[in-house]
């Protein structure tokens, strides 16, 4: 039997996840068990840690995990190893979801919400494949030490092995084959050896197995510029954990559709995937019914497609979101007045149709 | 006697630096010795290394250094320790220019060249203060090693000490006092200890010495988003070497004025500063007289102001560039037809006036 674990988390996480739950209920998928666990700050409040052993075990035993968002100023003071983000990093590691798929897509009905000119952003449909369980987020040694002269030193380690690079590279090349067939690999090989290895391994993998895909390389600073100048030049962007964090957020915001964008984090075939909106916990609007639930609902659609073996249901959900948008349904971030629940209603109405 | 060392470098570097040289000649500053040295790929071609001991000594002995640009595909195959960029990193280290000032300014006459909507970008005037001689560009251990299982591992070290953070923080706070009085400090303290220390040291420095400046903190991924969404919210952005590389390039491109933007790298008081355009070597248009010399000429203006004790001359140069722009002078990147030399002529004409 398939199972889906909901981790609503903090801030607007619970509100948006609740709308995904309603969609799930409406889909009434046969044989899907749905459960829920506290996560992030909510778990710190209840259990003193951002991810309990039970929640972690439940995630590993599930077919897919749908997360809301984590973090917020309420937990700014908790110790570093149990902050909300530490729970997220631990979950990603435990699930070994090394390939983070982050589409940056400009919805036609929303193109005018972008701060970029329509002729630059309209029709954008690019996919980031971000390495998610390695690099400077996880490398050791790391910490803050006191030096003999009394100064402090903060340090982290950026580290990638050949196999870490190759496995996420495979994901990028495979996905490119289903799309426009172009991968742009992004690093700073001109200043970092980890980037040199990244470029070499991606180049080798391409030559060995993916010659039919077009491969290019770009420095991360240039990529940041190109995403502003001409984002439609890209099809799939393959990059590491830290560059992927910044660049995919930049591209997501530039679509004007941040509240619309889902993500999927995938590991080994057959293992559970982790699905979550690109947006964060937005503590400033939490609990007010103002958040846009579309990114969560589209993350659910990705879970249906990539983990739950229900691609038709995924298509139905995505079509319902698009239809609701085309019919003018808009939360506040999209310039409208619908509440979180109201947007959920609009999508549910289209789902039934 | 003051001295200025020109390092034209590679690609369009020589062309744009030649126009700065003509401006310098027109200014005819009394008692300024001007010299020139090969740098980057040009130095590799001539001497086998990107920065000769003589060029390094000349830089350290000068009052200011004006650089063009380095690098290009021609030197993609040279060994890592003598690639063009290694020369630039070595020069920055030798000069100990720890504070990189990178203004992102939208010129009124050019606002329409931005890919961002005019209401988002018009009037933008923000200043990055990027740490330039520390962090993951320089941290050790670093390298590529072969592991016992035959795999390779590429690694770098992100590292900052309290004093490295504080000295560049002082620059940011001091400059903010001359501007709108707001500093936003950017890191990823939620995932990196080096970011935790960065935030703590900046917070402490602020409390000790700069309470009159408004200080805020932002994660680097959010900053990338905010630079696209609402860049005018910022006054001074203080950040590390790697985040500063990406974020300042993103902001520069978003102004639509990339070919217009200068930078200054400053070290201890009384030591030479290093001045260079934000743009790179642009090998695709090198040698064709298509490059915009304004960024180089405005970098010269920064050198006049910050190192050469000639603020009136700096004002004159900046006014001449602005006047030429307002009179419609445009190179190709700005939608015009002027050559590099033609743009230099237009500025020279205004300088005389
Ligand atoms: C919350 C934070 C740890 C996380 C990250 O940096 O990976 C977030 O920004 C993201 O991109 O999912
Ligand atoms: C050329 C390169 C080493 C350099 C850097 O990354 O610092 C450049 O991108 C810059 O920002 O000046």
Written overview of the protein:
The structure is a homodimer of 353-residue chains. The radius of gyration of chain A is 20 Å and the shape is globular. With 353 residues, chain A is α/β, with parallel strands linked by helices. Helices cover 41% and strands 22% of the residues of chain A. In chain A, the strands form two sheets. In chain A, strands 2-1-3-12-11-4-5-10-8-9 form a ten-stranded mixed beta sheet, sandwiched between helices. A two-stranded antiparallel ribbon of chain A has the order 6-7. Chain A contains twelve helices and twelve strands. Chain A has two domains: 1-98 and 267-353, Isopropylmalate Dehydrogenase, CATH 3.40.718; 120-258, Isopropylmalate Dehydrogenase. In chain A, 58% of the residues are buried. In chain A, helix 1 (13-27) packs across helix 10 (294-306), helix 10 (294-306) runs antiparallel to helix 11 (311-326) and helix 11 packs across helix 12 (340-352). The model of chain A has no long low-confidence stretch (mean pLDDT 96). In chain A, helix 7 links the parallel strand 8 (182-187) and strand 9 (214-219). At the A-B interface, strand 6, strand 7, helix 7, helix 8 and helix 9 of A face strand 6, strand 7, helix 7, helix 8 and helix 9 of B. Strand 7 (152-161) of chain A pairs antiparallel with strand 7 (152-161) of chain B. One 3-isopropylmalic acid sits between chains B (71, 85, 88, 245) and A (190-191, 221). Chains A, B: Its EC number is 1.1.1.85. Chains A, B: Its main location: cytoplasm.
């Amino acid at each position: 039997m398939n199972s889906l674990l909901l981790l609503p988390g903090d801030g607007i996480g619970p509100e948006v996840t609740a709308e995904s739950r309603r969609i799930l209920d409406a889909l009434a998928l046969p044989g899907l068990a749905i459960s829920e666990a506290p996560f992030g700050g909510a778990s710190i409040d209840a259990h003193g840690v951002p991810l309990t052993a039970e929640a972690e075990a439940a995630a590993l035993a599930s077919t897919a995990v749908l997360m809301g968002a984590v973090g917020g100023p309420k937990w700014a003071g908790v110790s570093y190893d149990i902050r909300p983000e530490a729970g997220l990093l631990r979950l990603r590691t435990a699930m070994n979801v090394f390939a983070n798929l982050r589409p940056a897509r400009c919805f036609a009905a929303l193109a005018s919400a972008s701060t970029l000119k329509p002729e630059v952003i309209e029709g954008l449909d690019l996919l980031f494949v971000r390495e998610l369980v390695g690099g400077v987020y996880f490398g050791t040694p790391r910490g803050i030490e006191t030096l003999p002269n009394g100064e402090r030193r903060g340090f982290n380690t950026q580290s990638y092995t050949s196999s870490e690079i190759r496995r996420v590279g495979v994901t990028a090349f495979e996905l490119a084959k289903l799309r426009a067939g172009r991968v742009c690999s992004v690093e700073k090989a001109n200043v970092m050896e980890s980037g040199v290895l990244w470029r070499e391994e991606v180049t080798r993998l391409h030559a060995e197995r993916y010659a039919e895909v077009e491969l290019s390389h770009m420095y991360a600073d240039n990529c940041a510029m190109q995403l502003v100048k001409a984002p439609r030049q890209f099809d799939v962007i393959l990059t590491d954990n830290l560059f992927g964090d910044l660049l995919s957020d930049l591209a997501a915001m530039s679509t004007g559709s941040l509240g619309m964008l889902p993500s999927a984090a995938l590991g080994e075939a057959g293992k559970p995937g982790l699905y979550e909106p690109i947006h964060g916990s937005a503590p400033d609007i939490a609990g007010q019914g103002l958040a846009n639930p579309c990114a969560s609902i589209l993350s659910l659609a990705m879970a249906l497609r990539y983990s739950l073996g229900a691609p038709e249901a995924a298509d139905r959900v995505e079509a319902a979101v698009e239809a609701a948008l085309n019919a003018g349904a808009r939360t506040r971030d999209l310039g409208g007045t619908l509440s979180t629940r109201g947007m959920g209603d609009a999508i549910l109405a289209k789902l039934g149709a």
